[in-house]
Amino acid sequence: MKLKPVIFILLMLFVALQHQAQAKVSVYDLRTELLVNPVGIDVSAPRLGWKLSGDERAIEQTAYHILVASSKDKLDQNIGDLWDSGRQNSNNSIHVIYQGKALKSREEVFWKVKVYTNKGESAWSENAIWTMGLLNYKDWAGRWIGFDRYFPSDSEEEGKLSARYFRKEFNTPKKVKKATAYIMGLGLYELYIDGKKVGDQVLAPSPTDYTKNIKYNVLDVTNFLKEGKHAIGVILGNGRFYAMRQAKPYKVKTFGFPKMQVQVMVIYEDGSSETLKTDDSWKGTSNGPITASNEYDGENYDARKEFKGWANVGFDDKKWLNADYVQEPGGDYEAQLNGNMKVMQDIVPVSIVKKAEGKYIIDFGQNFSGWVKMRVSGTSGSKVTLRFAESLQDNGELFTTNLRDAKATDNYILKGEGTEEWEPRFTYHGFRYVEVSGYPGVASKANFTGRLVYDDMQNVGTFVSSNPLLNQIHKNAWWGIASNYKGMPIDCPQRNERQPWLGDRPVSAYGENFLFDNANFYIKWLEDIRLSQKEDGAIPDVAPAFWRYYSDNISWPGTYLFVADMLYQQTGDLRILQKHYPAMKKWMDYMQSRYIDKDGIITKDSYGDWCFPPVTIEAGRGQIADKKYPSALISSSYYYHLLHTMARFSMLTGNGKDQSYFLDQAAKMRTDFNKKFYNKAGFYGTNSLTDNLLAMYFGLVEDANKEKLANRIVEIVEKENKGHLSTGVIGTQWIMRTLTDMGRVDLAYKIATNKTYPSWGYMVENGATTIWELWNGNTAHPKMNSQNHVMMLGDLLVWFYENLAGIKSKENAFQTIVMKPEMITGLDHVNASYNSLYGKIESNWTKNKSALEWRIAVPANAKAQVYLSAKDLSSVTENNKKLKDNKDIKVLSDDGKKVLIEIGSGIYQFKTKL
Question: What start and end residues bound the annotated signal peptide (predicted)?
Fold first, then answer.
């Protein structure tokens, strides 16, 4: 049986389990885990992992044996000259840290694993491979080149630069064995060899604060280089490097003009090697067809200015300039381990309507981010203009007021040579509708294709229920999340913002992980946050800090801890906590030393419960939502919760001496919090739903007052809100789980399935295909009114998967799973899955008046604690067999309402008489 190498965190490999007897062997569908390409690993001790599969139940790993070799031949001979782990008695199959010889830059590393289980021993897996990146600064042979100046084709006032084109011819005189390109092209690049683009990445590399760190991409170009002459070409766009708005230096961080450092390492069949590198012998120009590119405003392309064959051998570049040596950006060079952005899906228009003056309005039927690929024929010099918007006015024209001053416009000038096909390179838009003007001839749907662009990551979750509205909300969430993955989690893809606000993602990121394999994406973002921290400990509201917003509050920067906690829970990667613990502690101390008053309360907050809904839809009509209502209750309750988080982190990371420090602070703050904010009438603070939810969820309420507070929360939702929420971005992070933990899952379900304002269903009823920024997004003032946001998802997706489907990790990244779905009146069916690091977990339940049927799949080397709604054991069967007669099932408890059992891996079919 052949198995393909698969990656997780750094490296992962699937292993087929082979029973020593005659057990049938099977393998899961293979997919790439978390890391897109195992080329260019710049970590000295990579983590290895594998998945097991087999038909038998309760498969448990008992030991493993890893071999890591410097060549395929050695590995084929079972020689682990780099590392031979020997047999290690362990059930760990994720994050096994490489402990062999020191690895070198560009080294190819081959490995395989044999697994021992309670069911038998596997054969050696198929070989897997990874390649080391450039581990040292001196490994970069070339120098930075570019043009650190404006050209006549640039527009300094508008923040637009024409693209920079660079080229170089070279020779490979012998047969090439291996060729690897290493590129740092800032802000954005496209790499060509002999006229062909290298790779399918777009908008690469991922954005960072380039004074702190720079991501380089590693690309295998062996198949591009045959023996003989070649040409290499690079196009540079400004991206985030040359900021979109230069006029606000006090707010917007910019880094200079586009520049690059490139080297191609060529190894020949005879063992010799040479390196092509950037220097001042490269030729460059700004006088190309991309006359302007700007993430906010769009791209201008004049096809008449194309250089035919510019990246091919023999092109006449005499009029091009010699490249300048330029100052390096200053940040550390790092291999990009998170996936590049790619065109992940093509979208066909649902309609095209001809308007007056030769204009067309295209409707793609879905709000998304990316761009349009166009086919057009016409005379040279004809200009086609594409304008983008999320919605239409009542008269059928584009509604663009909510874009602020983002022009969101692409312009294409035809060269007039038959059918021309074009799409932009260095911009993207958030849109559903496109206005096309100047199109020669008759435009049809076939001439336009929408291209959905987001970071290359796989879907890992599915959710379908008997409630169509829940299913549509789940779909809208998927589109909103995907649209806002742009090398970092941005707030919105359409207006002149598109910033990685921390406050949008404290719990939303947790829910996102049930849909996408986004661990490396968020690992990268944690590093963005850490590197944005000031020397005194301050963390910004936006990271990377493209906007200079260090407002010092708890709820926005606190996302740093929330996301780290999510990654540890969902992936089991302890090194995340170990790496970031010092910076997190530094920030906690910074806030504590500056903003605790004499009453023990954190007084500093910036945003309050951001964007809470107006009392009625009409009350918010035309009103601007950009209003701040700072809340000491929010900042203090969050700080209390984060103190407990840090206490847990301290024990996990070997900093146990800090635990009492954090717990003592928390105990004092709990007392002070109740003195300050608890009202004897049974509520907290202003008696808002958010204030009360935070006190309940974070455990701030005294036991004697819990019932009274719970009653108050229910009263607000049921009576005052008539079954609706009234929370902004803060309260919405906790509302669904708080109500469920209180025993009022029915109220949570009511909130989730409302179709009237304010609710997710109200958005759907009013045409939303993603998630709005505002609950009243159809009536609010357009100044701050994105129709594609994720911050208002809160904990909804977590609730879908953990509470409705019953898929929740108890320990070690789903090695132990808790399966406890809520059986809600009115919800008859849920079918969900989540592809964990151990394999796919499935929960598929259906109930009627007389019975509950529940199909469960648990991956090998994992187990599940399953809660069955049953009055006694005799009312439950598994595969038509009574539980007491089933050797695969361990009964843990039976309280007369629920039966708690433990099962190992495998597929189970339960049926319970109700």
Answer: 1-23
Give me the mean pLDDT over the 90-98 stretch.
92
Q: Output the six-digit token pair for 896.
A: 């007369």
Phi-psi region of 723 (alpha: psi -120 to 50; beta: other; left: phi over 0): left
pLDDT at position 37: 53
What domains lie within the chain, and their CATH numbers?
Answer: 5-132 (2.60.40.10), 140-339 (2.60.120.260), 342-455 (2.60.120.260), 461-802 (1.50.10.10), 806-913 (2.60.420.10)
Cα gap 281→283, rounded to integer Å: 6
Least confident of 173-177, 244-248, 330-334: 244-248
Apex CA 154: angle with CA 153 and CA 157, to 5°? 140
Residue 161: pLDDT above 90? yes
pLDDT tens digit sequence for 260-273: 999 999 999 999 99
CB 100 within 8 A of CB 82: yes
Helices (H), 230-307: none
- How many Å apart are CA 380 and CA 359, to the nearest integer? 20
Residue with tokens 């997710």: 760
Average pLDDT, the chain: 93
Distance from the Cα of residue 170 to its chain's centroid: 39
Residues 846 and 95: their CA atoms lie apart, in Å, by 36
The string of DSSP codes covering 417-452 is SSSEEE--SS--EEEEEEEEES--S---GGGEEEEE
Estimate the share of the chain in helix, then strand, then coil, as percent rounded to the nearest 5: 25, 30, 45
Q: Is 421 helix (H, G, I), strand (E, B) or coil?
A: strand
Residue 699 CB contacts under 8 Å (≥ 6 apart), including other chains? none
Q: Say if CB 556 and CB 606 are below 8 A apart.
A: yes
CA distance 151 to 173: 38
| E strand or H helix at 463 | strand 461-465
pLDDT at residue 360 greater than cutoff 90: yes
Per-residue pLDDT, 28? 28
